[in-house]
Backbone:
């Protein structure tokens, strides 16, 4: 190829797989061939298998545990009980929220499915049989399945193990300006109210949780394979709980078959497999079964939301107040920033320009599995956005103002960033009204309103629901965000080999999000090394730099930023190497993608690959050899993506069945590294949103039995049930503080989606006076609402006898 001296020789970024390239996911090569390497694929010589005995009762005192029959079964190597764990100070462990959690129950069981004993045997079947041979004598206690029962004055104290715990309250928390909010309510023309329940939901990844612990007595080293979204946190926790020196613990998260938040907490099974391996000096594998996963691992939501909005007649929002009661189950085991007890619930209404607000929150212990925070949510933002958009719709209806118009007039304006929200966040950027306009245009808003009116005359119920969301993604900054005191930041390391190929490692851990593809794209963008020449590795604490892991869509905002920053350090060194190769001073060097050149004669240049070779073979005097660097990135702020989701539905008033007619999604996550992966994230999130809104829940009967511990009761939508989604990507507001302008996207659709579906059904029910149907909006609930013209609550039932 001949080029004139003035013509740029920069590489074509999309062709080398840089930003904006819809590069195919490199990890899929092994996944679609069935060649992934999951925890259950790890097989070590002499490995034993562990199974867990779980409590059938939700609340009971343990009178005795007889393990003699289990020990007698051939092939059984060890039976662990709480009593044995206690001799090593391991019957309880600290949670990631400064609470404690039973590893194996000693005094009481506190939820159905709680871990009571473990058997380690030659194979999982022997271990399971031996679990059934353990005899536990339980004395049943009264059961609490919701916060109302938990807060009753005569309620039994679930956490009687905690010194000074006289009731079932986990915490009281508040934020905002109560007096100012009260004054604003006095000025209101109209006050709108809403109460609803965001039900428990469950991430249900294809792969359950599991671990293989391999303690080697000869080296004193523990190698721990685990399904964790945050392997470095696991290493720290194991060091703390098992009192092993941190340098002797190697945590490896291999391929992960979906996480969705389920794989953030530390589970008793992990701890038991480690202790068993130490005691037996053999590798011990624990793989949770589906029911074990559904019944006992990190749930999400289960929060009661109540709020009021002070409104001026012309539609201006003057203030809001909100109260939430969160059902935390028996242990406060959420992983979340320690300063904020109810996660980032106070992000509610962050997209709206509201002068003053007040939020109170209370956490309550119940006889349910610990949970609250996981499932595609940046720390309870899902509940915050759901309530926000349900409330906004109710307020628009109360005022008789068009729902789209009401949103538009109250949005934070494009030129009003950074914007301080009344509950203390600083949102960074956005074009909210533009996103809304794109969505309304796409759905054909004006036409729909006419169709809806005509349909009503024919007795058909059409509804249109709008939901917006802005989500704080990318914790920290470290000033405000920590988990157990460990500041939230992340890291990346890049090593460029002499041939100009590279390896990137980060402290994040992909579970299906495609980091192996996208981190290489950031390197391609920053250095001009083709993405195919860059391999990405995550999840091994012996090789990866420290990081807080992948959840709350923090990887792109934090670890991704670290990749860009590390690449820039590499480029700075490569520039010196280029100056040396070209025999000019560094000041005379310019950069274009993939190449340095001499400013005065652009045809004289050195490619990044030539610089890499020079780092190993021809460096200037006094320069350290090699081309590697690490960056620790402490973000200045969270990134704030924005989205508008619009759904149209048709409700059959005879049966309550509703069908989605169309769904339009407008997501603005700043610069898209890989547009195809971003679309995949949005479609996956919308599918989960549809599932939560329409069919999915895990509830408990009045006796505390978990309903939904199998896939007959807990429904996952297939491609057959899932509606089609129309995605729009034309609105791009680059994040002003992120090195490549990207914002997180991993959870947006699951966060903002549910309210769009519910709002659509509520809109269809229009003139019935029904204000709320709790999720899942099952046909019988819709029928009940229509037939009896009343709200339908999804609260778990309470025993009447
Ligand atoms: N991306 C991009 N451009 C952007 C933003 C993101 O190309 N502007 C890409 C990223 O590089 C990454 C993916 O999109 O490959 C998601 O990035 P990000 O938003 O940073 O989210 P995380 O990587 O931190 O993933 C976490 C998020 C969470 S918290 C849950 S829960 C969830 C989700 O991701 N779990 C998932 N999506 C999931 N997708 C799959 N397949 N499996 C899970 O378990
Ligand atoms: Cu809250 S689920 Mo994701 O943050 O792993």
Residues:
């Amino acid at each position: 190829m001949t080029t004139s001296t003035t013509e740029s020789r920069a590489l074509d970024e999309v062709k080398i797989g840089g930003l904006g390239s819809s590069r195919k996911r490199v990890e899929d090569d092994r996944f679609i061939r069935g060649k992934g390497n999951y925890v259950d694929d790890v097989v070590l010589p002499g490995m034993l298998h562990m199974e867990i005995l779980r409590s059938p009762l939700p609340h009971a005192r343990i009178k005795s545990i007889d393990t003699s029959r289990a020990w007698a079964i051939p092939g059984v190597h060890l039976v662990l009980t709480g009593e044995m764990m206690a001799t090593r100070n391991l019957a309880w462990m600290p949670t990631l929220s400064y609470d404690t959690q039973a590893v194996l129950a000693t005094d009481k069981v506190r939820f159905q499915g709680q871990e009571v004993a473990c058997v380690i045997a030659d194979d999982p079947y022997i271990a399971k049989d031996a679990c059934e041979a353990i005899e536990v004598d339980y004395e049943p206690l009264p059961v609490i399945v919701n916060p109302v029962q938990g807060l009753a004055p005569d309620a039994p104290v679930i956490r009687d193990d905690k010194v000074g715990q006289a009731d079932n309250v986990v915490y009281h928390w508040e934020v905002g300006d109560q007096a100012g909010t009260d004054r604003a309510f006095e000025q209101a023309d109209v006050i709108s109210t809403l109460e609803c329940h965001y039900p428990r939901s469950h991430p249900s990844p294809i792969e359950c949780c599991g671990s293989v612990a391999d303690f080697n007595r000869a080296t004193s080293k523990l190698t721990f394979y685990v399904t964790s979204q945050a392997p470095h946190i696991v290493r720290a926790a194991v060091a703390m709980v098992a009192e092993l020196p941190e340098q002797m613990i190697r945590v490896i998260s291999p391929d992960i078959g979906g996480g969705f938040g389920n794989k953030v907490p530390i589970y008793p099974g992990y701890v038991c497999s480690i202790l068993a391996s130490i005691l037996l000096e053999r590798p011990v594998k624990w793989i949770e079964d589906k029911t074990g996963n559904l019944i006992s691992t990190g749930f999400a939501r289960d929060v009661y939301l109540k709020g009021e909005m002070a409104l001026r007649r012309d539609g201006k929002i003057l203030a809001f107040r909100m109260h939430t009661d969160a059902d935390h189950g028996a242990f406060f085991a959420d992983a979340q920033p320690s300063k904020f007890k109810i996660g980032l619930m106070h992000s509610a209404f962050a997209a709206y320009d509201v002068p003053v607000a007040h939020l109170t929150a209370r956490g309550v212990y119940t006889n349910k599995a610990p949970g609250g925070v996981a499932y595609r949510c940046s720390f309870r933002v899902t509940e915050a956005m759901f309530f926000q958009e349900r409330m906004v719709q109710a307020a628009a209806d109360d005022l008789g103002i068009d729902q789209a118009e009401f949103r538009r007039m109250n949005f934070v304006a494009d030129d009003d960033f950074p914007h301080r929200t009344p509950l203390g966040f600083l949102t960074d950027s956005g074009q909210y009204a533009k996103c809304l306009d794109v969505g309304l245009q796409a759905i054909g808003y004006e036409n729909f309103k006419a169709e809806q009116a005509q349909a009503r005359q024919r007795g058909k119920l059409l509804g249109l629901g709008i939901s917006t969301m802005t989500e704080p993604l990318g914790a920290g900054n470290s000033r405000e965000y920590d988990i157990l005191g460990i500041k939230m930041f992340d890291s990346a390391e890049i090593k460029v080999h002499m041939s100009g190929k590279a390896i990137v490692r980060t402290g994040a851990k992909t579970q299906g999000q495609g980091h192996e593809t996208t981190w290489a794209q950031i390197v391609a963008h920053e250095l001009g090394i083709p993405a195919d020449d860059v391999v990405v590795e995550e999840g091994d604490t012996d090789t990866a730099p420290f990081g807080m892991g992948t959840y709350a869509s923090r990887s792109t905002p934090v670890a991704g930023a670290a990749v860009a920053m590390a690449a820039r350090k590499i480029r700075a060194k490569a520039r010196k190497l280029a100056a040396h190769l070209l025999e000019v001073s560094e000041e005379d060097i310019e950069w274009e993608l993939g190449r340095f050149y001499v400013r005065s004669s652009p045809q004289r240049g050195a490619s990044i690959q030539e610089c890499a070779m020079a780092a190993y073979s021809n460096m200037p005097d006094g320069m350290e050899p090699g081309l590697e660097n690490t960056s620790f990135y402490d973000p200045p702020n969270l990134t704030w993506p924005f989205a508008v989701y619009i759904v149209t539905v048709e409700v059959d008033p005879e049966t309550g069945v509703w069908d989605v007619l169309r769904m339009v999604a407008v997501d603005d996550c700043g610069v898209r590294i890989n547009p195809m992966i971003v679309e995949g994230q949005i479609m996956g999130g919308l599918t989960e949103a549809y599932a939560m809104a329409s069919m999915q829940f895990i509830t408990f009967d009045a006796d505390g039995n978990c309903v939904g511990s199998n896939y007959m009761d807990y429904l996952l939508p297939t491609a057959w049930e899932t509606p089609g989604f129309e995605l729009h990507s034309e609105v791009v507001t680059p994040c002003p503080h992120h090195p490549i302008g990207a914002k997180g996207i991993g959870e947006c659709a699951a966060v903002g989606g549910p309210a769009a579906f519910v709002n659509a059904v509520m809109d269809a029910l229009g003139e019935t006076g029904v204000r709320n149907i709790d999720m899942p909006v099952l046909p019988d609930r819709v029928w009940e609402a229509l037939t009896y013209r009343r709200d339908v609550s999804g609260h778990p039932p309470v025993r009447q006898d």
Remarks:
- The pocket of CU(I)-S-MO(VI)(=O)OH cluster (ligand 2) is lined by residues 229, 259-261, 264, 373-377, 551-552 (CB under 6 Å).
- The chain has 19 helices and 35 strands.
- The radius of gyration is 28 Å.
- Residues 210 and 287 are 4 Å apart (CA to CA).
